[in-house]
Amino acid sequence: MLTGLPNARPSAASPPARAGATGVLLSVAAVLVVVLRGAPVDGLWGRPAAIAMTLYAAVGILVLLGLRHHAPRRFGAANIITLVRAAAVAFLAGVAAIEEPPSPALRLAVTIIGFAGLALDGVDGWAARRLRLASRFGARFDMEVDALSMVAITLLLLRSGQAGAWVLAIGMLRYHFVAMGWLWPPLTRRLPDNLRRKSICVAAIVAMLIALSPWVGAPAAAAICAGALAFLVYSFTVDYLWLWHLWRSTPAADRAIPERV
After folding, report:
1. Which residues contact 83 (CB under 8 A, 6 or more apart)?
2. Do 128 and 71 meet the contact criterion of CB atoms below 8 Å apart?
3. pLDDT score of 210 more than 80
4. In which domain, by residue range, is 87 found?
5. Looking at the domain assignment, is residue 197 inside a domain?
6. How many domains does the chain have?
7. Residue 35 domain flag
8. Mind spelling out the 3-state secondary structure of 5-67?
């Protein structure tokens, strides 16, 4: 999902950026293995840990592929923070894969991890601006980790019995949007930066983490998640309509199929 960025071309800085990214990827992977092996969570080491590492490896491969097409000057602190967030999401996915539903204590632990990852979501953007290393690659990487975190949290909500299978729709909205872009290329046009989109995404993650906490009962959790789903559907609908209006307002002769994102 990080490959094929619009108007992206390999740059002279790509090899150093990829080399730095490879070292960081391996270092974070080693830490993730230690955490998965040492975490006091019954049933985590084994198939769930393998799922977590496979997910992290997939993220790593996509990162390296993305850097081939749109590399910043160096991988940088902001992208390292985002990578740590990706490792945390992989850990949550591993917890969701445990055979037994998560206990209240484990739900509290993953809720704390989720909020810590959300806090880092603000730190990575600040670091990119502060160090003048903001890039389209970094912005895309951050967005995809946000989307992946939603999938992991919805799986945990389902496994804990806080909501039914419908809650998975929250995590799949982003991927539905991407799939629709393959069916109708005008949807792959780059959307302008928008505070509404980011705010609703953050609010939805906060709502789901609250719903996952052990102090919230299943009926209340389902209602909270339903509200989050409604706001996300609204946000995606606005983007769909904006892109459709842009396409309609473009003269037919100028409706070139954009590069896929």
Report:
1. 24, 25, 28, 59, 63
2. no
3. yes
4. 14-254
5. yes
6. 1
7. yes
8. CCCCCCCCCHHHHHHHHHHHHHHHHHHHHHHHHHCCCCCCCCHHHHHHHHHHHHHHHHHHHHH
Both tokens assigned to 175:
């991927």
Residue 4 has pLDDT above 50, yes or no: no
7 found inside a domain = no
* Other beta carbons less than 10 A from residue 141's beta carbon: 25
Contact 167, 96 (CB under 8 A): no
Residues 6+ apart with CB under 8 A from 2: 62, 63, 65, 66, 137, 140, 141, 144
Tokens of 5: 């960025």
Q: Is the pLDDT of residue 111 over 80?
A: yes
Higher pLDDT, 2 or 113: 113
Query: Is residue 78 a part of any domain in this protein?
Result: yes
- In this prediction the pTM is 0.85
Amino acid (1-letter code) at residue 23: G
Whether residue 187 contacts residue 260, with contact meaning beta carbons closer than 8 Å, is answered with no
Residue whose structure tokens are 């299978």: 165
